[in-house]
Design a protein that fits this description.
By secondary structure, this protein is of the alpha/beta class. The protein has a single domain (2-234), classed as putative 2-phosphosulfolactate phosphatase. The protein contains 10 helices and 11 strands. The protein has a 5-stranded parallel beta sheet with strand order 7-2-8-1-9, sandwiched between helices. Strands 3-6-4-5 form a 4-stranded mixed beta sheet. The longest helix is centred in the C-terminal third of the chain and has 15 residues, at 150-164. This is Probable 2-phosphosulfolactate phosphatase. Its EC number is 3.1.3.71. GO terms for molecular function: 2-phosphosulfolactate phosphatase activity; magnesium ion binding; sulfopyruvate decarboxylase activity. It comes from Paenibacillus rhizovicinus.
Length: 235
């Protein structure tokens, strides 16, 4: 099995996804929020790239959610905090989501045979699902402000570690960035939360009063939900 890690959405080229399973990673916070929303019973999450696209869909969906630069978009029902996506708020409802980086990455990944949303919360479940799909894998780190984000790299390393532990997967061959992220995760030694808090995105969230989101997003394998793109909807 070939595993390629891509450092940020700006480095993503569509032809790198063809005939592969793509796992999009945006730990702080888009993919963590998508997992939380589906775990809370949302009927589906439609990722869109722009605020205008989201507003244009307002009549055909039930909720608008999203952020720009870590802040909720004015007039939207929800932001991008996983703790907002409770059963009471999203249960049985379809949600349009637009974020600074994560939803862009999901759109870039759509040339893949399969597209999954991965996070620290569902890393093990993502690894199992990706292995069952029997394709080479691309781990697309969304990044932050068009640059590599530490938290996404840590998650990529965790997912590779989980894949290597599966008896059904043999002969893993990864690119240099994948090997580096696996080493980074293994050296974290149980300090993921502290590393996320010290990261650029983590410091920004703390400054904006969203430190609790880091607590949620740093929980390893707390969910068995694996969001998967079907058409234009993550279910």
């Amino acid at each position: 099995m070939q595993i390629e890690v891509i450092s940020s959405v700006n480095e993503a080229q569509a032809d790198r996804f063809v005939h592969r399973t793509v796992i999009v990673i945006d730990v702080l916070r888009a993919t963590s929020t998508i997992v939380a929303a589906l775990e809370a019973g949302a009927a589906g999450i439609m990722p869109v790239e722009t605020v205008l696209e989201a507003r244009a869909l307002q009549c055909s969906v039930q909720l608008l959610a999203g952020e720009r630069f870590c802040r909720k978009i004015p007039g939207f029902d929800l932001g991008n905090s996983p703790e907002e996506f409770t059963p009471a708020a999203v249960g049985g409802k379809r949600v349009v989501l637009t974020t600074t980086n994560g939803t862009r990455a999901l759109h870039k990944a759509m040339r893949g045979d399969y597209v999954l949303a991965g996070s620290l919360n569902n890393a093990a479940a993502c690894a199992v699902t990706a292995a069952e799909l029997r394709r080479d894998i691309v781990l697309l780190c969304a990044g932050s402000h068009n640059e590599f984000a530490l938290e996404d790299g840590l998650c990529a390393g965790l997912i590779i570690s989980e894949l290597k532990q599966l008896g059904s997967v043999s002969g893993i061959d990864m690119n240099d960035l994948g090997a580096a992220m696996l080493g980074l995760y293994r050296s974290s030694d149980g300090s993921l939360r502290e590393m996320l808090i010290r990261s650029t995105t983590g410091r920004r969230l703390v400054k904006n009063g969203n430190a609790r989101d880091i607590d949620h997003c740093s929980q390893v394998n707390s969910s068995s939900i694996v969001p998967r793109l079907q058409g234009d909807m993550l279910v």
